[in-house]
Sequence to fold (225 residues):
Amino acid sequence: MSGTPPSARTKVKRLHQRAQYDKESLYRILDAGLLCHVGYIIDGAPYVTPTLYWREGDHVYWHGSSASRMLRKTAGMEVCLTVSHLDGLVLARSGFHSSVNYRSVMLFGTAEKVADPKSKLAGLEEFMEGILPGRWAEIRPVTDQELKATTMLSMKVDEASAKVRDAPPADDEEDYALPVWAGVIPFVTVVGTPKPCPRLDPKTPLPAHVTGYRYGSKTVKEAAE
Fold:
């Protein structure tokens, strides 16, 4: 995708200087998140469903219950998948120029069903290991029934664009002299202290992949200190 001109759908028209189309930028934003929103049309009505996702190579994956209407209906359908990160409030000297710092990606493509059980199982392992390395080897293995009850979809990261704002306020020149505080209030994601299951055996140790879990800027251990 690197060096490929954007399509008519992905070309950023408003504030085009914030657009990024190279694969490295797109993947960096995708890999920084867990939650995406999938937009689609069923029976002429628009829907947007939030779901967890992961990336392997040039494909993005998401999964859920085989009973999910979204997963059943969108297999083979054109969808729009978006990911966004809110990085801060940008406080300008006027309401008009106040904004937010953010990173976002929009992808268009056809959702394809992952039908092969081995590929589906490998995808689930990749998903969990991407979030908590070492967790897959510790948990109970997936049963055939659980695998059957899970639908997995994939979409190639081919028609996509990113849009990023990471800057201080941009006021009108005459407003910079106003005695109004202006700047950025940064947003960071803080991981909370793990809460054990009420039925957990108290002798069960807290594993390193939990205490070392990192999402955003702080690990579980750092957040507790």
About this structure: The chain has two domains: 16-85+102-166, 188-225. The first helix runs from residue 23 to 31. Residues 217-225 have pLDDT under 50 and may be disordered.
